[in-house]
Amino acid sequence: MQRRKFLLGTIAGFSSTYAGCLGDDENDSAEIQDETLTLTTTTSTYDTGLLDEVNAAFRERFGVTVEAVAQGTGAALETGRNGDSDVVMVHARSLEDEFMQDGYGINRRDLMFNDFIVVGPADDPAGIHGIDDVTEAFGSIAETESIFISRGDNSGTHAKELDIWEAADIEPTGEWYREAGTGMGEVLNQAALTPGYALADRGTYLSQRSELDISIHVEGPIEGGPELLANPYGIVAVNPGVHDHVTYDLAMSYIGFLTSIAGQEVIENYDVDGEQLFFPEAVAADPNFAQYVPADWEPANE
After folding, report:
1. Are strands 105-120 and 279-280 parallel, antiparallel or unpaired?
2. Same domain for 100 and 63
3. 195-213: b or e for each residue (b if 16 or more CB lie within 10 Å)?
4. Are residues 176 and 236 both part of a single domain?
5. Is residue 17 a part of any domain in this protein?
6. Which of 100, 146, 149, 182 has a CA that sits 20 to 30 A from residue 20's CA?
7. What is the 3-state secondary structure (H, E, C) of the chain?
8. Is 72 contained in some domain?
9. pTM for the full model?
10. Smallest Cα–Cα separation from 105: which of 90, 91, 92, 87?
C-alpha cells in the first residue's frame, strides 16, 4: 500500500472551517459547550486507545463530550440505523455503502487506515509464516485443521475474514473453526491462550502485543503484504432526515475536526511503544471523491 502524502504542514491560503462550524482562529472560543455527542465505533479504535486521544482533542476544541460505544461494525451501524447514535466510525466499506444507500447515513468521509494481519502461535502448526498470499495461508490453516479464532460478530474484521475465505474458495467448518462472537482484544487473548490463529487489525495487535504470546505470520500491505488485507476506516453522520433527534451539528463538527489537519495530526502522532497504529487519510494531495457515495452509485438520469 502506497502511503499517501498528507498536507500536514503550512498550506498557503488554507482556511480551517471544520465542516463550517469553526471560526478562522483555532483558539477562538467554541460556540457549542456542555453538549454530548454519541459515537458508535469499532472495538479496534476503542481498544487501541486512539479514541481517548481524538476525543480529548475534540472536547478541548469544542467543549463537547463524546460518548463512545464500542461495537463491531455491523452492530455500530445498526445502532445508527435505530437513531441511537449521531455519528459512526467503522471499517467495512460494503456495510457503510449499504448504510448510505438505505438512507441512514450521509456525508461519509475517508478517515484513516491500517491493515489486517494473520497472527498465531510461534510454532506455526499450519506452516504459514512469511506466506505472501493470505488465501494460501487460510487454505493451509483449513487443510491442517489448525485452530482459528473468528470474530464471528459481523464486525469489519469478521467481514474481511469472510471475504478471504470466499477468495480462497473455502467454507470453514469443523471443531478447528471457532466463532468467538466478541471484540478484537478478546479474540487476540483467546488466540494466545488456545493457542490458535486469528485475523487481526494491526493497531489492536500492536497495542496489546506485550501481553500476547502470539506472532505475526502474514503481513498486510503496510509491510508489503497483499492488498486484500488493507483496512480503511470511514466516518459518517446519521441522517437527520430519518432521525430528527440526532445531534447532526455536533456530528458534522466531529467529522470536520477529525478530517481537518489538526485532527489528522492527532491520528498521525498516536503510537504505542513507538509504533504508529493508524495512518491518516482524509487530508491528501490526491483526495478520493468517491468516498462520499456508495461504490456503485451513479447519478440519476435526467
Report:
1. antiparallel
2. yes
3. bbbbbbbbbbbbbbbeebe
4. no
5. no
6. 100
7. CCCCCECCCCCCCCCCCCCCCCCCCCCCCCCCCCEEEEEEECHHHHHCCHHHHHHHHHHHHHCEEEEEEECCHHHHHHHHHCCCCCEEEECCHHHHHHHHHCCCEEEEEEEEEEEEEEEECCCCCCCCCCCCCHHHHHHHHHHCCCCEEECCCCCHHHHHHHHHHHHCCCCCCCCCEEECCCCHHHHHHHHHHCCCEEEEEHHHHHHHHHHCCCEEEECCHHHCCCHHHEEEEEEEEECCCCCCCCCHHHHHHHHHHHCCHHHHHHHHHCEECCEECCEECCCECCCCHHHHCCCCCCCCCC
8. yes
9. 0.84
10. 87
Rounded distance, CA 235 to CA 48, Å? Answer: 17
Whether residues 42 and 68 fall in one domain: yes
Q: Which domain holds residue 178?
A: 115-229
| C-alpha to C-alpha distance for 209 and 190, rounded to whole angstroms | 13
Q: Is residue 129 part of a domain?
A: yes
Q: Please say whether the beta carbons of 86 and 247 come within 8 A.
A: yes
Q: 109 φ, ψ to 5°?
A: -135, 140
Tens digits of pLDDT across the chain (302 residues): 443 433 333 222 333 333 434 434 444 445 566 799 999 999 899 989 999 999 999 999 999 999 999 998 999 999 999 999 999 999 999 999 999 999 999 999 999 999 999 999 999 999 999 999 999 999 999 999 999 999 999 999 999 999 999 999 999 999 999 999 999 999 999 999 999 999 999 999 999 999 999 999 999 999 999 999 999 999 999 999 999 999 999 999 999 999 999 999 999 999 999 999 999 999 888 888 889 888 777 776 65
Give residue 268's identity as a one-letter amino acid code: E
